[in-house]
Amino acid sequence: MTERRTLIILSSVAGALLIAVVVVLSVYLVQSTRSASPAPEPPAAPATTAPPTSSAPAAPTPTATPTPEAEGPLIDVTGTGFTIANTEGEVTFTHEWAGDAAPAVAALTEVFGAAPSEDFQNGDAENYAYNIYVWEGFRLYDVSLGPGNRPRTEVPAPTYVSFDTDIDDPVTVEDEFGVSLGMPIAEARALGPVSESALPDGGVRLVFGADRGSFYNDGARNFSAYVDSDAAGQSVQAITYGFRVR
Q1: Which residue stretches belong to region Disordered (predicted)?
Q2: Cis? peptide before 170, omega within 30° of 0
């Protein structure tokens, strides 16, 4: 009886010890598992998105405005003479047909940038002889008087000019009737010439201001304009201002 009680007590103690061991192991395992698990990372701060930059539209690069090239000198021919104007439109020289040719030659030399070549036109029973000062596309005629001629003051055309499509740029020559070199001859006709005639080479000649040239009546030198076409009669080739042109 005593032995049986002892076995029961020992069995109870062993069971209690076993339970205690199991509990201790369970606690240990739980703590080990918690220690091995990584600590949760703190939530990442929300990324701050930079507000869109509202950039003003780039100012356009200024485009350099090309400076228009200045027009060249202008020779304006009328019935009474011609004037020369610079690129600003200022008249720098005036020549009347009865005037001395030397100042005109000097002024034209400056305009064309070179001295003229010289030529001579013989006279006959109806026409005086002339010294001719020649630039490319422009001619100034100056009467050449001999001992038997009248004085210069009584010559109908002491000087006169002619100009054609060979004239050098940038010099511009204009006439008072609106006729320009190279203009279609049909447009020149529309400007109202007072007469038209055929030329030996097949072209035509239009005459403007044919009622002028009354030198022998009242002493006025107011020349007509003789407009010659090319041989095909299509465009203005040359213009001559004179008292009488053969």
Answers
A1: 35-77
A2: yes
